[in-house]
Amino acid sequence: AQSVTQPDIHITVSEGASLELRCNYSYGATPYLFWYVQSPGQGLQLLLKYFSGDTLVQGIKGFEAEFKRSQSSFNLRKPSVHWSDAAEYFCAVGANGNKLVFGAGTILRVKS
Amino acid sequence: NAGVTQTPKFQVLKTGQSMTLQCAQDMNHNSMYWYRQDPGMGLRLIYYSASEGTTDKGEVPNGYNVSRLNKREFSLRLESAAPSQTSVYFCASSVTNYGYTFGSGTRLTVV
């Protein structure tokens, strides 16, 4: 069965510093991979997605993610974090039947 | 341009009470989903509906029932609420290729 692991429950970075959020997936075939962001009290917003092709994917708000098949990873990165990036981030993999399987999430705190 | 609308936004129930969470989408999407979100567990699929007239169990269906009333509406019912069902519930709809749109959630507390 498909699964997603986000090893870091919480991450704290200073404003202006770079960010990397880790995501590992388990899936037998070529995966469809996603990163979502959730601000407090809000729904989920899609940051970026990978279906095929170029393994470096650009998303909204200056985020990017790199698909590494050999490591079963799809890590999210941002070169310079802003205070408004503080939120919870979810990695997800597309499962059979157009379903999404989510990781447990990583809470990002930004210190000024 | 409402997208996915969930009602209510907040609800407190007593153990054993029943209630229905409503979800409606105006994007003409075929597929609809109900997820629950719990701290440290991400979002887990309760039920989904691939198209009007069909529903299927997800990862955590026990204690819930659903109705796909028409293409727009997909409701989630708790027949006898339990404290373990305290959670935030999200409805979503999608086209193919996982193009999900999420509602803003219903925060349910069962006391």
Describe what you observe in this structure.
The complex is a heterodimer of chains A (112) and B (111). With 112 residues, chain A is an all-beta fold. Chain A is built from no helices and 12 strands. The termini of chain A are far apart. Chain B starts with a strand and ends with a strand. In chain B, strand 4 (31-38) and strand 5 (42-49) form a beta hairpin. The mean pLDDT of chain B is 95. Chain B is mainly β. In chain B, strands 2, 4, 5, 6, 9, 10 and 11 form a 7-stranded mixed sheet that branches. In chain B, strands 1-3-8-7 form a 4-stranded antiparallel sheet, with no helix packed on it. At the A-B interface, strand 6 and strand 11 of A face strand 4 and strand 5 of B.
Name some characteristics of this structure.
heterodimer, A: 112 residues, mainly beta, six-stranded mixed beta sheet, B: mainly beta, seven-stranded mixed beta sheet, 0% helix, globular
Give the largest interface: A-B, 24 and 24 residues
Number of helices in the DSSP assignment of chain B: 0
Characterize the largest beta sheet of chain B: strand count, sense, and whether it forms a barrel: 7 strands, mixed
Q: What class, by secondary structure content of chain B?
A: mainly beta
The portion of residues forming beta strands of chain B comes to over 45%
Based on CA atoms alone, the radius of gyration of chain A comes out at 13 Å
Could you tell me the number of beta strands of chain A?
12
CA distance, first residue to last residue of chain B: 36 Å
Mean pLDDT over all positions of chain B = 95
Question: What series of H and E elements makes up the topology of chain B?
Answer: EEEEEEEEEEE
Order of helices and strands of chain A: EEEEEEEEEEEE
- State which percent range the strand residues of chain A make up: over 45%
Total beta strands of chain B: 11
Helical coverage of chain B, percent range: under 10%
Uncertain runs of chain A are none
The coarse silhouette of chain A is globular
Indicate the structural class of chain A. mainly beta
* Oligomer category: heterodimer
